[in-house]
Please model this.
Amino acid sequence: MNKETIIYHGSEEEIKVPVLERGNVNNDYGQGFYCTEEYDKAATWALKRKSNGYVNKYLLKASKLKVFDFSELKENMILHWAAVIFKHREARLDGLLAQNNRDFLIEHFNLDLSGYDIVKGYRADDQYFRLARLFLTDQITIRALANAFTAGRLGEQIVLMSHRAFACLEFQGAKQVSESQGFISYRAMTEVANREVREQLESDIAQRKAALKNRGGAVAPILSEIIRSYLQNQQTDFDKFAKDEA
Model:
């Protein structure tokens, strides 16, 4: 991460002085201030509930901060990400399978992020959180979960997690944005994401059925299969199954 980075936060109001304690503890990575390096993504978030909002701009001086970046994980990034999300996000899970799978993910793949000032990783969003719940119930493979990160182009988020990080943040101003200016609304973005996710799921189901039928290539596993394999060999990197060429 650059020593100095411009980041944006979309909201219904100007936020000149962000406060750590106002963050929701049940957000993706826990309590923090969730931002992005992409102006348009922040504008979309600003239009989540209303047709007008604000994109707040900040200068983040991160040279002395401890940063955790999910993209730098050497293996099993998808499972680590899912475990962290399920650790923090509240979810009503129906059935013993989903509960047991969630507990397994958290026990074996959760990461302690409490020592970091900044976390950088995928945005979950409610739609993608629902997709992760399908992963818990063996309805989709790890490949579909990974591919869905790019569907809808939600992008990555930068989360300030400590008072040290907040002290390195400088407010640069705020601009009012609206749908009439051409920015895509959160509602419209969700519709795009829903459509692309459905396409990903249909493709994943077809690929898995074909692979199981002919066994001519690698079969992307569902979570229960991952668990069985992991218990046999904890050195397995399941990210390889998330790649299209796997």
Notes: The chain has one domain: 4-235. The longest strand covers residues 52-61. The chain has a mean pLDDT of 86. The two ends are 30 Å apart (CA to CA).
